[in-house]
Amino acid sequence: MTQAVAIPAPQPVSIPIREILPYAVLVTVLALAALYFVSTDNNAMTLMAEGYVHEFLHDGRHLMAFPCH
Amino acid sequence: MMRTLLVRGLLAGLLGGVVAAVFAYVVGQPLMDAAIEIEEAAAHGHDHGDELIGRGVQSTIGLLVAHAAYGVAIGGLFALLFALAYGRFGAWSPRAYAAVLAAGAFLAVSLVPFLAYPANPPGAGEGASVNARTGAYFGLLAISVVAAGIALYVATRLTGRWGGWNTGICLTAGYVAVVTVSGVLLPGFEEADGFPGELLWDFRVAALGDLVVFWVVLGVAFGALAQRSLAGHVSASAPATGRAGGGAPAGRR
After folding, report:
1. What is the mean pLDDT of chain A?
2. Which residues form a coiled coil (chain B) (predicted)?
3. Could you tell me which residues come within 8 angstroms of residue B184 by beta carbon, excluding any fewer than 6 positions away?
4. Vertex B13, ends A36 and B107: CA angle to 5°?
5. What angle do CA B83, A24, B140 make, to 5 degrees?
6. What's this model's pTM, rounded to 2 decimal places?
7. Exposed, middle or buried, B17 (CB in 10 Å: 0-12/13-18/19+)?
8. Where are the domains of chain B?
9. What is the pLDDT of residues B124-180, one digit of tens each?
């Protein structure tokens, strides 16, 4: 005669914060820099005064719903 | 493990950006062209005909690069969010975590700012107000992301005591209250006077569709990749880790 044995469900092992932290700092800084160029019209005025970056990314900015003119 | 997840986040984000760019090109670009024609006919907006970078480049390579850069950046941040959340809310599979987090991130990062400050085609927003509009948009985006982050953190503390369902309802209500009040208090911009309503609507639907396509592809692709890399990353016995803080698993998917 067999008996039903409860098999514990596999539990996901969370990743220690210690391991995430250095990646978090670097990725956040780099990602925010990239997002600044893509998403803000301001680079027309501040960086690249000529507006090359602004114009190159113009259509993507409009269609990703960021403010532009 | 973090390195693996990060690489997969960048890849899934890149894929999402490329697919969204194709969607934007097919659905959005005809509307963009129509809007620019109206803007130039009105002659009060800025001139798109005589630009440093031609419209042909902006609407193709520029569109793709903008989406790809956005995708890679968001994909990297999404991998961090996933790594922080995974295993801390219950015993869901990696792809269930990825799907839920992508849906939540779409809400906090894309949808909430969109509802308060919907996308405008060229010519439907005043050029002079672009700095004020940018400030208000990113102000609300920051409030939304911070509020969602706090809600997630509090959820890891409360789920054990209140259960996943009640915790989820209370924190979601709190988040919605915060962004609603913020959206009401922040300045509004109604500047599309005289711009054809139907074109404005179509453009906004296209822009929202662009964002939905991006987040869906990111969530599904990252989930598939994370499912494979985390396949062996489970412990067979019940309490996962002492630090999980999730208490009773909210349920398996």
Report:
1. 81
2. none
3. none
4. 75
5. 95
6. 0.87
7. buried
8. 2-229
9. 877 778 888 889 999 999 999 999 999 999 999 998 899 889 999 999 999 999 999
Q: Each residue of B203-253: pLDDT tens digit?
A: 999 999 999 999 999 999 999 999 988 876 666 554 444 444 444 444 444
Q: What is the pLDDT of residue B224?
A: 96
Coil, helix or strand at residue B93? coil
Mind listing the pLDDT tens digit for each residue in B14-72?
Answer: 999 999 999 999 999 999 999 998 888 876 555 565 667 788 888 899 999 999 999 99
Q: Length of chain B in residues, anyone? A: 253
Q: Which residues of B touch A58 (CB under 8 A)?
A: 58, 62
The type of residue at B154 is: V
| Alpha-carbon distances of A9 from A12, B160, B240, rounded to whole Å | 10, 18, 10
Measured between CB atoms, does A25 come within 8 Å of chain B?
Answer: no
Residue of chain A with shortest Cα separation from B248 = A11
B235 phi and psi angles, rounded to 5 deg:
-105, 140
ipTM: 0.82
CA-to-CA separations, B25 to A57, A63, B62, B74, B209, in angstroms, rounded: 13, 9, 11, 20, 12
Size of interface A-B (CB pairs under 8 A): 196
B75, two tokens: 């994909």
Closest in B5, B57, B233 to A13, CB measured: B233
Nearest by Cα to B62 from A32, A63, A48, A47: A63
- Closest Cα of chain B to A11: distance in Å? 5
Which tops the pLDDT comparison, A15 or B191?
A: A15
- Sequence-distant (≥ 6) Cβ neighbours of residue B2 within 8 angstroms: A15, A19, A20, A23, B83
Task: Report the run of H or E that residue B235 belongs to, with start and end.
Answer: strand B234-235
